């Protein structure tokens, strides 16, 4: 999030930048990123007003005046790409003259030119992601950064340490490195130019203030515990008979007790933001202002509310709690941004919800907030201290189901919230488990088993590194065939082909009712499966490459062991009323997906290839229908795609009505429909099915899909479904 004067900037639809002008209530959408935006910042100057946005693949600087002019002329606005492939960016900051941009990417800080793509300097030294960086205005080429350093060195204490560093970025030299400040991550940073001090906040509600005067050697001035200051302030207001939020919902502040009530939960107070407070500007017409107001004030943005700290006495002067305002639906914030200068006595605040995809824009009347809480001021009427700006301009695109689905649902390792109840014996024998009547109701259809032992994870990683083969990016695309092999003695159509995950075997489904398995070089036939009474229209490999599933025009499904010629599982015609198509393993071989007419089936199964000599014709494998998912307004599903190489709840389908539909099997419903995706029916959907053990970010997988139809091939962005 970012705020500047009357503008707010925040990500919209994942990879777009929305700049909202509060004066005209007009949003400006800027497109140029392919991946989710992770950092935003406004420039230091107003004319021209610049915005920098960063994602893992690029960093872009936008000139708002030029972008608005392009939109008015009917053109698409474009920014200047100043950096590419820097990795996950957590923070960006313009220099005081807007000529350079400090980009905190991973463990390093890249100094980029704001006018072209050029890396001016790279500042290495942090051992963990850099969370914030600020320029020092009175010291040329001086940059201060904070980081979460989860490693240790020989000369440091042997536990997690979080450090502060001071850089000379013109020479890429480290000027100063602090010792251990706190055992919690440092999240925010502010430089007080007037007092030449540095203020930083951590994830546990602690503030640390350091002196930046050259003779003081960066000594610590004070340490503030925000929880204790908040308790002191609430007790002081309670004694004076005041009310916090007076005029909004009449919620009184109760005196805090040292003993926490039974059943209550103690929460942390992470400091997301430290920003200057334009306090005196809000009281320029007041005559009864005490001389103490000449001190510096600054905002503290936390997960539960906003605080105002007086830098003269380091005490809390005002506190705004989100939950005290009934008009505000956000109770706990994940991040926040504030304008440094007040406009007409009001400060613009932007917050996002911690638990929902929701953004709120607030106008805080600073004078009214302080008057109602501070005993120094004489109350002047019943003036509201907080107003929630009308959401009709901001929320429509944020409440769009596409945005909600892509940001929340497309996470392959998301586990549904489940309250665990320990097993308790119902009798006096400790080995007998509870019957389960105390268990919480089931909230999700299924969840992946990610609690693997270290040995199992290391084995899987090793096997993936050894077997997985990637197409060389520097090579040209294949345009010539290397070998031609005749699979049968007479001409026979091949309906489907499928490589195994490691590329070591190739399965083919033929019109002569057989399934063939070839070696990768097509020199010899590994195995032949026969038993279908119709043409084989689909084949699919299991993740462990031990099983092969096939579907046929005879309305049957068979699962074969690669080592045997007899099927381990057969589902006959009595199970399906129409032809079975697009059969595949799903959710790391936990389920089988298949299409039958206008719906697809989710099947659970257990495979047992052993045979009993007395009952050799009796099938030991079992299969059970979990649920059927119908596709809306179509006669037949023409294509289906789902990932089996890692945990994914998403299933993509295409119908004869030329539409695409996205299903979330964890929620058990359809989440998005794209009508008229092609002018003809889609006959193929392709997704990226890379390994889940890759070192890349999880967001890099399955962000795109390709659809093929009679009118051509289209590449889709799953975050925007465009």
Automatic annotation (TrEMBL):
* Signal listed as a keyword: no
Keywords for this protein: WD repeat
PANTHER family recorded: WD REPEAT-CONTAINING PROTEIN 27 (PTHR44525)
Tell whether Membrane is among the UniProt keywords.
no
Q: Gene name?
A: Wdr27
Q: Which PROSITE patterns match?
A: WD_REPEATS_2 (PS50082), WD_REPEATS_REGION (PS50294)
Residue ranges of WD repeats: 529-562
> What InterPro entries has UniProt attached to this entry?
Quinoprotein_ADH-like_sf (IPR011047), WD40/YVTN_repeat-like_dom_sf (IPR015943), WD40_repeat_dom_sf (IPR036322), WD40_rpt (IPR001680), WDR27 (IPR042411)
One Pfam family from the record: WD40
Q: Which organism is it from?
A: Scytalopus superciliaris
The molecule here is called: WDR27 protein
């Amino acid at each position: 999030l970012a705020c500047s004067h009357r503008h707010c900037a925040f990500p919209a639809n994942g990879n777009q930048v929305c700049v909202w002008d509060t004066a005209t209530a007009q949003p400006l959408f800027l497109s140029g990123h392919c991946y989710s935006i992770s950092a935003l910042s406004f420039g230091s100057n107003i004319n021209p007003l610049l915005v920098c946005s960063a994602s893992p693949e690029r960093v872009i600087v936008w000139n708002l005046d030029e972008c608005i002019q392009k939109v008015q002329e009917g053109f698409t606005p474009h920014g200047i790409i100043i950096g590419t492939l820097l990795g996950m960016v957590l923070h960006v900051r313009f220099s005081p003259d807007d000529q350079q941009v400090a980009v905190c990417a991973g463990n390093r800080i890249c100094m980029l030119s704001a006018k072209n793509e050029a890396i001016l300097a790279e500042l290495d030294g942090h051992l963990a992601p850099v969370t914030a960086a600020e320029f020092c205005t009175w010291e040329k080429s001086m940059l201060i950064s904070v980081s979460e350093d989860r490693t240790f060195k020989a000369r440091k204490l042997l536990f997690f340490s979080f450090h502060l560093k001071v850089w000379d970025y013109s020479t890429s030299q480290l000027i100063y490195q602090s010792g251990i400040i706190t055992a919690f991550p440092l999240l925010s940073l502010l430089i007080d130019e007037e007092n030449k001090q540095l203020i930083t906040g951590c994830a546990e509600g602690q503030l640390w203030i350091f002196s930046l005067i050259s003779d003081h050697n960066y000594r610590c001035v004070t340490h503030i515990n925000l929880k204790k200051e908040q308790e002191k302030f609430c007790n002081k207001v309670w004694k004076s008979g005041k009310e916090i939020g007076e005029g909004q919902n009449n919620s009184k502040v109760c005196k805090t007790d040292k003993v926490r009530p039974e059943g209550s939960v103690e929460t942390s107070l992470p400091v997301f933001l430290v920003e200057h407070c334009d306090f005196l500007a809000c009281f320029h017409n007041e005559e009864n202002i005490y001389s103490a107001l000449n001190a510096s004030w600054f905002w503290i943005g936390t997960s539960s509310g906003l605080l105002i700290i007086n830098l003269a006495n380091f005490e809390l002067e005002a506190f705004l709690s989100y939950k005290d305002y009934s008009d505000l639906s956000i109770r706990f914030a994940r991040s926040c941004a504030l304008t440094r200068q007040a406009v007409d006595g009001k400060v613009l605040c932007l917050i996002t919800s911690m638990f929902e995809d929701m953004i709120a824009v607030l106008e805080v009347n600073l004078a009214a907030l302080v008057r109602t809480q501070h005993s120094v001021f004489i109350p002047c009427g019943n003036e509201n201290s907080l107003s929630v700006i009308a959401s009709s301009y901001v929320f429509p695109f944020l409440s769009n189901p596409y945005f909600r689905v892509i940001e929340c649902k497309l996470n392959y390792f998301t586990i549904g919230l489940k309250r665990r109840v320990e097993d308790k014996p119902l009798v006096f024998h400790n080995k007998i488990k509870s019957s389960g009547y105390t268990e919480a109701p089931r909230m999700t259809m299924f969840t992946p088993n990610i609690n693997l032992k270290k040995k199992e994870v290391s084995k899987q990683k090793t096997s993936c590194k050894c077997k997985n083969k990637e197409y060389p990016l520097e090579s040209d695309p294949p345009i010539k065939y290397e070998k031609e092999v005749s699979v049968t003695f007479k001409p026979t159509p091949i309906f489907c082909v499928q490589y195994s995950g490691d590329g070591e075997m190739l399965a083919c489904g033929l019109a002569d009712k057989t399934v063939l398995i070839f070696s990768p070089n097509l020199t010899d036939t590994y195995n032949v499966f026969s038993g279908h009474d119709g043409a084989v229209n689909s084949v699919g490999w299991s993740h462990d490459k031990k099983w092969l599933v096939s579907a046929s025009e005879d309305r049957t499904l068979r699962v074969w062991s690669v080592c045997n010629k007899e099927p381990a599982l057969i589902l006959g015609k009595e199970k399906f009323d129409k032809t079975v198509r697009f059969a595949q393993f799903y959710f790391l071989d936990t389920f089988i997906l298949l299409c039958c007419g206008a719906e697809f089936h989710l099947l659970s199964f257990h495979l047992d290839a052993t045979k009993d000599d007395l009952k050799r014709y009796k099938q030991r494998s079992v299969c059970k229908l979990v649920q059927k998912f119908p596709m809306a307004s179509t006669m037949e599903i023409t294509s289906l795609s789902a990932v089996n190489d890692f945990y994914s709840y998403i299933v993509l389908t295409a119908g004869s009505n030329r539409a695409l539909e996205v299903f979330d099997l964890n929620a058990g419903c359809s989440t998005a429909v794209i009508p008229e995706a092609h002018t003809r029916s889609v006959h193929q959907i392709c997704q990226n099915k890379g390994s889940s053990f890759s070192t890349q970010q999880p967001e890099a997988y399955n962000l795109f899909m390709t659809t093929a139809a009679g009118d051509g091939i289209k590449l889709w962005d799953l975050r925007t479904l465009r």
